Amino acid sequence: MKARPLQKLDESLLLNLPPFRRLTRPQIREILDAARTARYDAGQSVFAEGADVERFFLLLDGHIRVQRTTPQGEQIILLHIAPGQLFGIGAALGHKTYPATAVAADECVVLAWPNRLWPDFIARYDGFATQTYASVGGRLNDMHAVIVEMATKQVEQRIASALLRLITQTGRKVENGIEIDFPITRQNISDMTGSTLHTVSRLLSAWEKDGIVASERKKITVTAPHRLVLLSGAAG
């Protein structure tokens, strides 16, 4: 399924995003005019693991799920990308192929540029490179934290930690707590934490009874974040 193209966007959409904060409106207009803009439905892939790195991307709206396939054929969710962030930046890392698959977690609006423009962007636009590499560093730290958790934490702690990461990165304040601001299933959480679907379902049901989380179809709200911190082992 192909992404649906969108109409021309106004430069004000990028003014306050980190890679573009130091740029003038004419510079942002140049960047937008060089971009391909598209909308992806939930579940569509923006790019696939192993495909040639041909473009880099900016997420304007929605959430991107980054996942890899293990040699055994299992899906592992590495991280989620929130609006306003660059992704698929293989050109910045010297990658020839994408190391993971980027899937729209909900309806997404994405800008894409051909890789040949990357050196020009780095050279011409103040702050573009520093913000990009800061973003890469943050994601590497997040993935390192997940690897450490997989090796050292019990399954209950891993699931609690994963929910805390999600509300920190993409949480939205609601009346009864902090809601993960995109659709997420128990299978998704299983794929994030190296646990079984049965274990995730059992723990979330128990936490819901204890007033720690509230869930409905593809929506999870953390109603007692402080108790989830204790369950994650972070307070110890």
Biggest sheet overview = 5 strands, antiparallel
If classified by CATH, what would the architecture of the largest domain be?
Sandwich
Which outline best applies?
Answer: globular
Oligomeric description of these chains: single chain
Number of strands: 13
SS strand fraction:
25-35%
What does this structure look like?
It is a single chain. The protein is 38% helix and 25% strand. It is an alpha+beta fold and 236 residues long. It folds into two domains: 4-142, Jelly Rolls; 153-232, Jelly Rolls (Sandwich). The strands form three sheets. Strands 1-2-9-4-7 form a five-stranded antiparallel β-sheet, with no helix packed on it. It is globular and about 55 Å long.
List keywords for this structure.
alpha+beta, five-stranded antiparallel β-sheet, four-stranded antiparallel β-sheet, globular, Jelly Rolls, 8 helices, 2 domains, about 40% helix, about 240 residues
What's the short story on this structure?
It is built from 8 helices and 13 strands.
Describe the secondary structure blueprint for this structure.
Layout: E1 4-5, H1 25-33, E2 36-40, E3 45-47, E4 55-61, E5 64-69, E6 75-81, E7 86-87, H2 90-93, E8 101-104, E9 108-114, H3 118-124, H4 128-152, H5 155-170, E10 171-174, E11 177-180, H6 186-193, H7 197-209, E12 213-216, E13 219-222, H8 225-232
Antiparallel strand pairs: 1-2, 2-9, 3-8, 4-7, 4-9, 5-6, 5-8, 10-11, 11-13, 12-13
Helix pairs in contact: 5-6, 5-8, 6-7
